[in-house]
Amino acid sequence: MEPQMNTDERRSSIVNRQSSIIFVLFVLFVVDTGGCSYATRNALPPRIKSIAVPVFANKTYIGEYTRKLEVEVTEAVRNAFIQAGELKLAGREDADLILEGSVTKLDREILRNDRFGDPAEVRLTVRARMSVYDVKEAKYLLKDQLVTNAEKKEESGVYNLRRGESEAIGRQKAIEDLGRMIARRVTERW
After folding, report:
1. What pLDDT is stored for residue 65 in this prediction?
2. Domain boundaries, the chain
3. What is the model's pTM?
4. What is the pLDDT of residues 120-171, one digit of tens each?
5. Is 183 helix (H, G, I), strand (E, B) or coil?
6. b or e along 47-70 (b: 16 or more beta carbons within 10 Å of the residue's beta carbon)?
7. Runs of H (alpha helix) within the chain
8. Which of the following CATH numbers is that of domain 50-187: 3.30.160, 1.10.10, 3.40.630, 3.30.70?
9. Closest Cα partner for 130 from 25, 54, 66?
10. Which residue, 181, 160, 180, is CA-closest to 170?
11. Residue 136 in contact with residue 106, Cβ under 8 Å?
């Protein structure tokens, strides 16, 4: 004959069993979803931690020279790397990667005219060529690739004259988007 369990012992036994079941379910959940997690960082090799971004060349002189465009694009690219936080900015001597680029063209495209035939909405497209050199491997990872601000976003660089927006607003949007596109192209290569 088995000894009788009092009420407290019975409750303790039930609680222990429930705790064990919850623990097992938790472990199964963690093991099951471990491979499905979302990573916020790109898969850069651990040896690559910094990038040098010297001032871009301005080759817009072929068509219409755009003063200081290369400086604005360089600043936008540097800001994009700072905001992403995946690669630190460094000088050429200390960097793992060197990003070289040139701004080749600034296009203006009229998207819409008003009823008088005057431009109402305009898109600015900034085109640049970029190369990424891996210092430690002594080779180019990307060579002379064309990048534009309008690759992924059609509204990039668009400004509306009827709403009082100036070309400076469209230019700023286009340059910021180009900077993000270049930074993304470098980090997504992996």
Report:
1. 60
2. 7-36, 50-187
3. 0.74
4. 999 999 999 999 999 999 999 999 999 999 887 778 889 998 899 998 999 9
5. helix
6. ebebbbbeebebbbeeeeebeebb
7. 7-33, 69-84, 167-187
8. 3.30.160
9. 54
10. 160
11. no
